[in-house]
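Researcher: I'd like a structural prediction for the single chain below. Treat it as a standalone chain; there are no partners to consider.
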Amino acid sequence: MEALVTTVKYRGLLARERQKGLTAGVDSGSTTTKAVIMRDNQVIGTGWVPTTEVLNSAESAYDAALKEADVKKEDVQALGVTGYGRFLVGKHFDAKLIQEEITVNSKGAVFLADSQKGPATVIDIGGMDNKAISVQDGIPGGFTMGGICAGASGRFLELTARRLGVEITELGKLALKGNYQNVAMNSYCIVFGTQSLVNSLSMGCKPEDVAMAACHSVAEQVYEQQLQEVEVKEPVIMVGGTSLIEGLPKAMEELLHVKVIVPKYAQYIGAVGAALLVSGLLEA
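Model: Treating it as a single chain, here is the predicted structure.
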């Protein structure tokens, strides 16, 4: 049983708009571990580290968030965890909440985008898999997960940045200067995607065009493989670390013909959702 409360009670927590107290959330992801400290509905501290050894990474991210918030661990009233390492990390921290990512990301996304009422669509393109979720009043409905290959994930964008000789944080800005139509890109397989990168650059394609083509390729695969399986309703909210690669939300906007929202703290989405949900378990 992943949740430590009943389904009925969870629906109430998901729909609730305002929570109080000092809580923490830890998202033990496949490539990065994130942590947040929240007080009375506000993020006051964050931590972000690469995931190496799961527990050490969780401790490091949590300590960084506590330090930024200027809060002691013993003052935190409740902690929630999510992500691939949630069971191990949850046991380690004696977490009050251990929850899968669909529920947590839905809650965090609509909260950060100030869209807790009505419909929304959440897109999370991760380091290893992708999620597309239809949400109504903060509660997830239909969703799809997965992807055919790493070519449809953040891994391919990391590879693209490395091949172009830029940091992943610089790839998005570079992509915004480019035209994806100038490059033939195939990243349905990460191996073929790499070949496309090499061939395009060897033929003299501009780095900015290649960067935007990579963003479009990933967005197109998510659109074709997953967004056809859910009812896309506005607002469309993109979350996760890849949402900060500016070319990716732009590519998704061009495919969907709607505005894509990337809220503040989008990269901490799982940790924020966990901190919000666990606050609903505090005694009044």
